[in-house]
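Lab meeting, item 3. Inverse folding demo.
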């Protein structure tokens, strides 16, 4: 069953220091001013933080699921996924991993120790 924007929201807002913001019809999830996940206005794609040096391999491994960001966003640590292709467990892993890139290591370690 494909994941929904509400699934993303529930996972993201369960994470310490995370909050939701709307920017030009796009739902974004942040820690401070750093965006770690975003849902496209039509709710078909999830953008998420991902190590820049690993994203080409991710996209090449599953091109039906993952996409590179638009050229203007290539400078960021960011990848997109087609939400219809994601499973619930995979969604949780992607969102939590993106969040860990934004919070202090001690906050991430404390959360992950309790999971």
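The presenter then showed the designed sequence:
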């Amino acid at each position: 069953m494909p994941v929904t924007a509400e699934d993303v929201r529930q996972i993201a807002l369960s994470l310490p220091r995370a909050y939701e913001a709307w920017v030009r019809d796009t739902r974004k999830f942040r820690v401070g001013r750093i965006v770690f996940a975003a849902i496209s206005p039509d709710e078909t794609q999830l953008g998420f933080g991902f190590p820049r040096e690993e994203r080409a391999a991710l996209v090449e491994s599953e091109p039906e699921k993952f996409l590179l960001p638009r050229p203007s966003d290539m400078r960021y640590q960011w990848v997109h996924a087609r939400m219809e292709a994601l499973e619930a467990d995979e969604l949780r892993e992607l969102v939590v991993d993106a969040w860990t890139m934004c919070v202090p290591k001690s906050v991430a370690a404390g959360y992950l120790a309790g999971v």
